[in-house]
Amino acid sequence: MITATVALVLLALAMVTPFLAPMLWAAVLSILMLPMYRIWAKRWSPTFGAALATIVASLLVCLPLLLIASLAIRQVSPALRSIEGTGGWETVEMIDKSLQPALQKVGMHDFHLRGWWEENGAELTQNLRAPVTKFAKSIGNSLFMAVVLILSMFFMLRDGNQLREPFLRYCGLEREWGERILTTIEKTTHSVFRGSVLVAVIQGTMMGVMFALLGVPNSILLGVVAVLMCMIPILGAPVLYVPVGLLFLVQGNLVSAGIVLGVGVLFISQVDNVLKSFLIGNQHPLVIFISVLGGVAVMGSVGLILGPVSMAVLAELYQHIDQKLNPPATQIEEEVTEATPTQDPRPNTKDSSS
């Protein structure tokens, strides 16, 4: 009997594993849409509320991604053609000219950036095209996984409440702590989404608009890259706006360089410093950094959210264990009081009569 049970469990895990990523994203989106679902389910029905919440989440996620992807693709193609052709040599020669004094000092007398680019440009372009081709081939699989995500989200919203009691019963914790873990998961998911994803979108949008106003080529593509960079703690926006500002300096455009670096330092980076700490909470930056990168390494893109959530749950479990091993003084006094037998306050009538 035990062997058959273990075999069935392993078989079930093997069947679920290929769909683990979309199911995890479905769980994250379900938690994010839970407040709206509760309102709609109470007003109409759980089925209608789950369907409406799933449709709204799909539109909120898919439409911006499709719009950004189409705009980015429009800018990637001309950029690749420019790399393959002879466009942009003036900038390359200007950079090469500015680098020559430093190269001469280290003994690199024969190195020229244009010559190096002419020799390796075709290979670099081919390396850039390879991921794009691979991505195009994976579109079919991505669409299938999107269907799995949408269906999983619908059923998680509609029937997820039925799993609450079994979790509280079999999680191995007191009911109070089980409820506390579920609350921590929900609150942390919302706070990490607001603090990481939304803040990154705000920073990337500000950077893309700034680049577009200054006439930087491929500003939309740079804005998309900025959003991705801003999701990674410690790296963030300076990884992008500092090189662009230095490039303006090399070109001699001091006004544009000052605008990029000034707006980047005074406004874009401050959005991250102010909003992220306010929205995520008082977690140490190192903890956020390790949980995000570790979550991405273990779980993929969904680790951006579930990494910090896992650390928050771990912190709650640590508090539970610490409270068990070192109970507060008030709890000890209450336990001692309950264990002490109560004495009858009435006088002993036999002794008094004698």
Can you offer a commentary on this structure?
The mean pLDDT is 77. The chain has helices spanning 2-16, 20-43, 46-84, 89-105, 113-137, 139-159, 164-170, 175-213, 219-230, 238-251, 254-280, 285-299, 303-325, 329-339, 349-353. The protein is an all-alpha fold and 354 residues long. The N and C termini lie far apart (73 Å). Helices cover 83% and strands 0% of the residues. The protein folds into 2 domains: 16-165, no CATH class; 171-330.
From the alpha-carbon coordinates, what is the Rg to the nearest angstrom?
29 Å
Sheet with most strands: none
Distance from first to last alpha carbon: 73 Å
In total, the number of strands is: 0
SSE layout and pairing:
Layout: H1 2-16, H2 20-43, H3 46-84, H4 89-105, H5 113-137, H6 139-159, H7 164-170, H8 175-213, H9 219-230, H10 238-251, H11 254-280, H12 285-299, H13 303-325, H14 329-339, H15 349-353
Helix pairs in contact: 2-3, 2-6, 3-6, 3-9, 8-9, 8-11, 8-13, 10-11, 12-13
